[in-house]
Write a structure and sequence with these properties.
- The structure holds two protein chains of two kinds.
- Chain A contains eleven helices and eight strands.
- By secondary structure, chain A is an alpha/beta fold.
- In chain A, strand 5 (168-173), helix 7 (177-189) and strand 6 (193-199) form a beta-alpha-beta unit.
- In chain A, helix 1 (23-37) crosses helix 7 (177-189).
- By secondary structure, chain B is an alpha/beta fold.
- Chain B has four domains: 5-182, Pyruvate-ferredoxin oxidoreductase, PFOR, domain III (Pyruvate-ferredoxin Oxidoreductase, domain 3), CATH 3.40.920.10; 201-383, Rossmann fold (3-Layer(aba) Sandwich), CATH 3.40.50; 397-467, no CATH class; 473-590, 3-Layer(aba) Sandwich (Rossmann fold), CATH 3.40.50.920.
- Chain B is built from 18 helices and 21 strands.
- In chain B, the strands form four sheets. Chain B has a seven-stranded mixed beta sheet, sandwiched between helices. Chain B has a six-stranded mixed beta sheet with strand order 2-3-1-4-5-6.
- Chain B is globular.
- The mean pLDDT of chain B is 96.
- Classes of the chains: A alpha/beta, B alpha/beta.
- Chains A and B meet through strand 1, strand 2, helix 3, helix 5 and helix 11 of A and strand 7, helix 7, strand 8, helix 9 and helix 10 of B.
- Strand 2 of chain A pairs parallel with strand 15 (431-433) of chain B.
């Protein structure tokens, strides 16, 4: 693996088909920078993408990658990492993929705490299907399928993560490229499941949660006295419904990744060309 | 026909029925006798009744029959449940001192052997051992040396301490001596022992052992009857070979974890049953289009919906063949015996990796809950071959890079099989997707590329048909007028049914098919027979439909969907009746 990897090495030669101005451009650039900054290389990196606008990311990046079934990106990422802990595994998806159809997998992936990162492009809208409510849409957000708004409160993914025993919870904003890249880098470096929710505005279908809205309302935790290692402080910030924060909300310093706790030492790819040594003992067990 | 003994213990759930059956089955196996156990039988009355049955002989036993020789009845109801299977030489062992057992009436002139199981167990150290007292009594009735029990008692109770083991040995002897002293009677049974060494295992264990033998390193699953034993077998054991079992949050996750591990280069599998395979169906197409080698095992049970979770059925054949939207190339294999569960699992991994395709390994409850004896050589690990297919490494990857140096993971090769680079391989970085994609794995809607990729994936099946042998197993008289065809676990019952039929002068050619797709073409075999009967445990005859489709000719069908597998004698009767019907029909047509 060469040490002079640049973030552009993670770029494929496919041009993104995201709408001009989409937050996902900034989100992806930050992911690539973070991967390069952490000394990774396309050949040791595995990206798993979900379905939706965000899911296209595997095509625009260069690495080993799988773009799978709607909502199941996290289980794929867990399987990859368990089978080869030497790989850098990054899972990426949107608010629909992660918090609606994949919500069950989200809380269990958080609990399992496999050493990987999960970057969610949260635009509070379904963009690829042209503008329906997502699980993070506001209660009164009018769309074609919810003419009076969803009439239910949005999901709070960071609260779900905290309640599920998360060891790393962060929030970024795609337009603040430097902070976004730094925080994704911290998620990669974290020993465990690094969860980053990214406000990644949809300029075509969401006229409420816009760049202007986030720019005006978001507060950088670096400019506060927030202690990321204090779970109670994290809880208070996460549950504050009228505030948006950027930064690492919570980190467990003592996090030990699942695969380490399970004693997985290396890649499972290499096997002998016949039954493994000692296999006959398995037969003898049945005497 | 084996000179067999049919033994059972029955009672309520929670009476330790299964573990008592296992202790006796192990003792018989260690004494050099063949054993075939079953737990999947109908209750005549209502739920809550449970039993463990053992058929044993010095010859191989391949199925269950409709006869009970020794019955240990822990409840009165156990006697009623088995009324039809008892006969005048049967011996029913029960505790006549129990207030609940006062009204027991033993039918058909069978011997009622009242043994104070509870009291004798208490004498040995605790009422909890009453089942073992009954085992000791059964040893005396069958003239089976009680020392054979000791080893299996040690195996069962060893981790609870030597005192417990000794108490159980005493309990068994209390039962034996009571029968010896109190009943001055010659019983009709003499259970012979031999010097043979057998191993005793069920179909799920055989699949698990086959997976480890084949180099499987990753298993993700979600507990479900009757596939859980595959998972429990692998847990802990696969670790000793560098692997891991993961219990996922649901089957959607399980198959995707297994897929991820396979993409990372591990031999990987999942196993489930009906309701779980429904969820996994979502991912079948992705496995196929991403060309990921994956073994997906369905241990069938009675459906649809929750169905009868602890009952037998072969109802998922169409699901295995056609499950999932779009057209999904796949292999479907259905092992026909417990030992074949082992070998077909090994083969499933080789097919999966050689052709980078999903392989459906379709087993069923009848094999999952049956323990059967085999010579250890049946599972000769030296015979296991591992073929990983077209895996490329740093040294040969250049051949597979395009003019811009990009790895072509979906290269449309002449045989349809593309190169495979495990993540971590230098210059191998590539993506793949469930979207239609080009040779680089990138999304496309280009019509030419679409057709090229579909053809290339389907071509792998054609290549496999040329390179592999998807043959049937054949028994009986190859020139017989009657051809019986079955798939999956019916093989054993049908082989024994042939003995019954032979006694009645009916010769049968029996073809047992383990390969459902691709499968052997039976056109000539069906044409050569006067009558063809397809035997399967489902209501609609899913395999018979396939055979008719293949050979363009109608076949007779024997279907059973009570939730209970075929008994050998019952199956013989069914075949006979079908032949008579068919002859009647042919006569009518002639008129």
């Amino acid at each position: 693996m060469s040490s002079d990897i640049r973030f552009t090495d993670f770029k494929s030669d496919k041009q993104p088909t995201w709408c001009p101005g989409c937050g996902d451009f900034g989100t992806m650039n930050g992911m690539m920078k973070a991967l390069a900054e952490t000394g990774n290389d396309p050949d040791n990196t595995f990206i798993v993408a979900g379905i939706g606008c965000s899911g296209k990311i595997g095509t625009y990046m260069h690495s080993y990658a799988l773009h799978g079934v709607h909502g199941r990106a996290l289980p794929v990422g867990i399987g990859v990492k368990m089978a080869n802990p030497d790989l850098e595994v990054m899972v990426s998806g949107g608010d629909g993929d992660g918090y609606s159809i994949g919500a069950g997998h989200f809380i269990h992936a958080v609990r399992r705490n496999v050493d990987m990162s999960y970057v969610v492009m949260d635009n509070r809208i379904y963009g690829l299907t042209k503008g329906q409510a997502s699980p993070t849409s506001r209660e009164d957000f009018e769309t074609a399928t919810t003419p009076d708004g969803p009439n239910q409160p949005p999901v709070n993914p960071k609260a779900l993560a905290l309640a599920s025993g998360a060891t790393f919870i962060a929030q970024t904003f795609s337009s603040n490229s430097q902070r976004h890249a730094e925080i994704v880098q911290e998620a990669i470096e974290h020993d465990g499941f690094g969860f980053v929710n990214v406000y990644s505005p949809c300029v075509t279908f969401n006229d409420v949660d816009t760049y202007d809205y986030f720019r005006d309302s978001i507060e950088d935790l670096n400019e506060t006295d927030h202690d990321r290692f204090d779970r109670d402080q994290a809880k208070d910030k996460i549950l504050e419904s009228d505030k948006e924060y950027m930064g690492v909300l919570y980190q467990d310093e003592n996090s030990v990744p699942f695969e380490e706790r399970e004693g997985i030492e290396g890649s499972m790819a290499e096997i002998p060309d016949g039954a493994p040594e000692g296999a006959m003992d398995l037969v003898r067990e049945f005497y | 026909m084996p000179d067999d003994l049919n033994w059972a213990i029955g009672g309520e759930a929670g009476d330790g029925i299964a573990s008592t059956g296992k202790i006796f089955a192990q003792a018989l196996s260690r004494a050099g006798r063949h054993v075939f156990t079953s737990k999947d039988f109908a209750s005549r009355i209502r739920g809550g009744y449970t039993a463990s049955k053992i058929r044993t002989s010095v010859d191989r036993v391949e199925s269950v029959v409709d006869r009970l020789d020794i019955l240990i009845a822990l409840t009165e109801r156990t006697v009623d449940e088995n009324e039809d299977e008892l006969h005048e030489d049967s011996v029913v062992i029960y505790d006549g001192e129990r207030s609940t057992m006062q009204d027991v009436e033993v039918p058909h002139g069978a011997t009622a052997l009242e043994v104070p199981l509870k009291r004798l167990a208490e004498d040995a150290g605790g009422a909890i051992m009453l089942n073992v007292v009954a085992l000791g009594a059964a040893c005396e009735v069958t003239n089976f040396p009680i020392e054979n029990l000791d080893e299996s008692l040690q195996k069962r109770f060893g981790d609870k301490g030597e005192a417990i083991v000794e108490n159980n040995k005493t309990a068994a002897r209390n039962g034996q001596e009571y029968v010896r002293e109190e009943f001055d009677q010659e019983f009709a049974y003499d259970v012979e022992t031999t010097d043979e060494d057998y191993v005793l295992l069920n179909g799920d264990e055989a699949i698990g052992m086959g997976a480890i033998a084949a180099g499987c390193r990753f298993y993700a699953g979600y507990p479900i009857t009757p596939a859980t034993d595959v998972m429990e077998y692998l847990t802990g054991r696969i670790d000793q070979f560098g692997g891991k079992v993961i219990q996922a949050e649901d089957e959607l996750s399980a198959i995707n974890m297994a897929l991820g591990a396979a993409r990372a280069g591990a031999r990987s599998m999942t196993a489930t049953s009906g309701p779980g395979i429904d969820l996994m169906t979502e991912t079948f197409g992705l496995v196929a289009t991403s060309e990921t080698p994956l073994v997906i095992c369905d241990v069938m049970r009675s459906g649809p919906s929750t169905g009868m979770p602890t009952k037998q059925e072969q109802g998922d054949l169409d699901m295995a063949l056609y499950g999932g939207h779009g057209e999904i190339p796949r292999f479907v294999i259905a092992p026909t015996t417990i030992s074949e569960c082992f070998w077909k699992t090994v083969e499933a991994f080789n097919l999966a990796e050689t052709y980078q395709m999903p392989v459906f390994l379709i087993s069923d409850l009848a094999m999952a809950v049956t323990e059967q004896t085999f010579s250890p050589d049946t599972f000769d690990m030296d015979e296991v071959e591992v073929d990983r297919g077209k895996v490329v490494d740093e040294d040969d990857i250049d051949t597979w890079l395009d003019e811009k140096g990009r790895f072509q993971a979906h290269f449309p090769a002449a045989d349809g099989v593309s190169p495979r680079a495990f993540p971590g391989t230098t210059d191998g970085a590539h993506m793949t997707t469930g979207l239609e994609h080009d040779e680089l794995g990138r999304r496309t809607e280009d019509t030419d590329v679409r057709v090229e990729q579909v053809d290339k994936r389907n071509r792998k099946v054609e290549t496999a048909k040329e390179q592999e042998t998807f043959d049937y197993r054949e028994f009986g008289d190859p020139d017989a007028d009657t051809l019986v065809i079955s798939w999956g676990s019916n093989e054993g019952a049908m082989r024994e049914a042939m003995d019954f039929l032979e006694d009645e002068g009916i010769d049968v050619r029996f073809i047992s098919v383990p390969y459902i797709f691709p499968r052997p073409d039976l056109t000539e075999e069906v044409a050569a027979a006067e009558t063809t009967i397809v035997v399967e445990c489902n209501a609609t005859g899913q395999f018979a439909d396939l055979i008719e489709h293949d050979v363009l000719q109608r076949v007779e069908r024997v279907n059973k969907y009570t939730g209970v597998r075929f008994d050998a004698d019952e199956l013989a009767d069914e075949v006979k009746a079908t032949l008579a019907d068919s002859a009647g029909k042919q006569e009518l047509e002639a008129k």
